[in-house]
Amino acid sequence: MRVLAIDCSTEWLAVALGDARGFHERREHAGQTHSERVLPLVDALLVDVVWKLTDLGGIAFGAGPGSFTGVRIACGVAQGLALGRGLPVAAVPTLEAIAQDAHRAHGATRVFACTDARMKEVYVAAYERADARWREVLAPAVVGPTEVTLPSGSWFGAGDGLAAHPAMAERCAFSGVDATIKPSARAIGELGRARLMAGQGTPPSEALPLYVRHRVALTTAERAAGARL
Fold first, then answer.
1. How far apart are CA 124 and CA 147, in angstroms?
2. Is 52:17 a contact under the CB 8 Å cutoff?
């Protein structure tokens, strides 16, 4: 099965195309221009791999947690492209994608994924790998850095939340840390393809972002102070 993967959950925009042989990825720093850049980037990658949208068997997207606007853009684009072609959609948690990339880069099999949620909070989740699959040990959540506690055992820390809050990272005593890892479209494609191959895709209309923070707007004072969701 050939799969398109899209991630807009951070300031980086990433898209990937792949199948059982592997994934090709393109990424660029998009800032606030994901909605303008995502389709041109998909088109450029299709040209790179000499595929057409009609060659696809499904679409995966980074469902969050992450930028509220970004995950909605990725979901909407995935829905729109899939709807016109009758394709299933796989919503992949971005923190699980971080675990996938930590395994690729470091061989980590027990990953505590932590990303900066801004507003003095972090998004966290923990995953354990067995039989080439990830088991969710701690479901995605948003917490304050001082509230972070690890499940029992030894954990590899991954994600930019560890760089944003170094005191938290030191307190957690990880077996190893890579704070540079961000969700990649390649990882989302790999995880999404596995879901799609297992029949776990959904119709486009049922694909939804993963929200763990219930606040979706800032006060005027928060916006003036430069806060971001």
1. 11
2. no
94/91 Cα distance (integer angstroms): 9
Q: What is the pLDDT of residue 96?
A: 98
Looking at domain 94-178, its CATH architecture is 2-Layer Sandwich (3.30)
Report CA dihedral (10, 14, 18, 23) to the nearest 10 degrees.
-90
pLDDT at 219: 44
Going from the first residue of the chain to its last (229 residues), give the mean pLDDT of each consecutive group of 10, the final group possibly shorter.
98 98 97 96 97 97 96 98 96 98 98 95 97 96 96 97 96 97 98 98 96 60 50
The helix/strand/coil state of 138 is strand
Considering the segment(s) 3-93+183-224 as one domain, its CATH architecture is 2-Layer Sandwich (3.30)
125 near 140, Cβ under 8 Å?
yes
Whether 3-93+183-224 and 94-178 share one fold: the answer is yes
Helices and strands per DSSP (H, E), number in the chain? 7, 10
Place of tokens 């479209």: 185
* Residue 32 zone, left/alpha/beta (φ > 0; ψ -120 to 50; rest): alpha
CA distances from 155 to 12, 96, 99, 216 (A): 26, 14, 11, 31
Q: What's the pLDDT score for residue 222?
A: 40
Strand partners, 3: 18, 58
Report yes or no on whether pTM surpasses 0.85: yes
pLDDT at res. 84: 87
